[in-house]
């Protein structure tokens, strides 16, 4: 009976762990997609669509890219902003792949915890 209660307790904690991480994962993907769309449009007027913690990040990237682009345009007469924007979008795409990969690790860890015998945990 003791092992059954322990297994039931472990199942509950793993279920909560999975629920929390899946909800975090989906929220992160939704927020990421919102950030990606705003970066694609490069429109600072859409800032209110972002979660509060992402607004400053977007503004910093937006201002830095435009500042670098302005400096290059003044000194070399080359418009670099489209290339810098493309680099930002490529970086965001790589981060999305990392988010998805990380969520797969969380699912695998939870599965390993749920299926491992009690002896292996101690």
TrEMBL record:
UniProt keyword Metal-binding, yes or no: yes
Molecular function, one GO term: terpene synthase activity
Keywords: Metal-binding
Keyword Metal-binding: yes
Residue ranges annotated for the Terpene synthase metal-binding domain, each copy included: 31-92
InterPro entries reported for this sequence: Isoprenoid_synthase_dom_sf (IPR008949), Terpene_synthase-like (IPR050148), Terpene_synthase_metal-bd (IPR005630)
A biological process term (GO) from this entry: terpenoid biosynthetic process
Highest taxon in the source lineage: Eukaryota
Pfam families: Terpene_synth_C
SUPFAM superfamilies in the cross-refs: Terpenoid synthases
Designated name of the protein: Terpene synthase metal-binding domain-containing protein
Organism annotation: Arabidopsis lyrata subsp. lyrata
């Amino acid at each position: 009976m003791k092992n059954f209660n322990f297994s039931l307790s472990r199942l509950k904690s793993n279920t909560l762990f999975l629920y929390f991480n899946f909800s975090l994962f989906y929220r992160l993907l939704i927020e990421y997609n919102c950030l990606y769309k705003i970066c694609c449009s490069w429109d600072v007027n859409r800032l209110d669509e972002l979660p509060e913690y992402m607004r400053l990040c977007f503004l910093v990237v937006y201002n830095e890219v435009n500042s670098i682009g302005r400096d290059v345009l003044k000194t070399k007469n080359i418009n670099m902003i489209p290339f810098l924007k493309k680099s930002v979008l490529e970086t965001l795409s790589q981060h999305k792949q990392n988010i998805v990969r990380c969520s797969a690790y969380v699912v695998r860890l939870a599965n390993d915890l749920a299926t491992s015998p009690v002896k292996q945990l101690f």
